[in-house]
Design brief:
The protein has eight helices and eleven strands. The chain is α/β, with parallel strands linked by helices and 305 residues long. It comes from Melia azedarach (Chinaberry tree).
């Protein structure tokens, strides 16, 4: 019988996310299905991949609906994907499917920004990469950015941020950064916070491993927006918080809604709960009868901001 190498020893194990071997190798339990960009024949939505930062290897995927006239400008939605900060890519199939539908139904332009994953890149790398991505988007606001689709089609007076799960956490983070640091040229009119991750009250060993510099559940503003002295600076006129009844993170989503409602932030926050569903069901069970009502709520919010 062959003996296992010492390098095969698992030093950290966080199912269903990843495990880490003694030699530093990370093995993920789940690998989402990647997808290619192109024309979606059912909706007419086009997509293509672009490089945001060659130094950091950051990519993004842009989605454009059918265009009505050469000078048409569209609201721009900037999206950040979920996956516990450690799984998936903006280029994976669940996010392509979701954004293709949203772009077609809301008649908007969307760009989903990728970020480097933990634990190879410890948090808050994902947040910093995501902020870099939003700054890259803003570099197009004078019509002279590197990506023609954004220069030609984006209405920078109507920019929305969006994300689900960890991506919702990131969307909140970059909205605060936009308010604190300034982001010339972008008017962020709305933010979609869908099934957000804002930590767990019980000890979260996974997050502690991915973010060893965290000050803890109560004090870390990434986990607890109420502890953020910059919360009132959040740059968004409206926020739409969505939760799912059976989601283990539901109560933290409710807490986020209540935190924003009573904060010094001057915007308006709205709330929607899907009954009988679990975390990010709209991504992984796209044929559920509850996906349609959720999508309608998201589209209605987008059209009114």
């Amino acid at each position: 019988m062959q003996m296992e190498s010492i390098d095969d020893e698992v030093t950290h194990n966080f199912p269903p996310f990843f495990k880490v071997y003694k030699n530093g190798t990370v093995k993920r339990y789940v690998n989402m299905e990647p997808s290619l960009p192109g024309l979606d024949p059912d909706t007419g939505v086009q997509s293509k991949d672009v490089m945001v930062s060659s130094d950091k290897g950051l990519k993004a995927r842009i989605f454009l609906p059918m265009i009505d006239g050469p000078d048409q400008k569209l609201p721009l939605l900037v999206h950040y994907h979920g996956g516990g900060f450690c799984l998936g890519s903006a280029l994976d199939l669940p996010f392509k499917r979701f954004l293709t539908s949203l772009v077609a139904e809301a008649n908007i332009m969307a760009i989903t920004i990728d970020y480097r994953l933990a634990p190879e890149h410890l948090l808050p790398t994902a947040h910093l990469d995501s902020w870099t991505g939003l700054q890259w988007v803003a570099s197009h606001s004078n019509g002279q950015g590197p990506e023609p689709w954004i220069n030609e089609r984006a209405d920078f007076g109507r920019v929305l941020l969006a994300g689900e799960s960890a991506g919702a956490n990131i969307a909140h983070y970059v909205a605060v950064q936009a308010g604190v640091n300034g982001l010339a040229g972008l008017n962020i009119t709305g933010t979609l916070i869908v099934h957000p991750y804002f930590g767990r009250q019980e000890p979260d060993k996974l997050y502690e491993y991915m973010c060893p510099t965290s000050s803890g559940f109560e004090k870390d503003p990434i986990l607890n927006p109420a502890a953020d002295p910059n919360l009132k600076s959040l740059k968004s006129s409206r926020i739409f918080v969505c939760v799912a009844e059976k989601d283990s993170l539901r109560n933290r989503g409710v807490y986020y809604y209540e935190t924003m409602k009573k904060s010094e932030w001057q915007g308006n926050v709205e709330f929607y709960e899907t009954l009988g569903e679990d975390h990010c069901f709209h991504m992984f069970t796209p044929h559920s009868e509850n996906v349609g009502p959720l999508m309608k709520k998201l589209v209605d919010f987008i059209k009114t901001v």
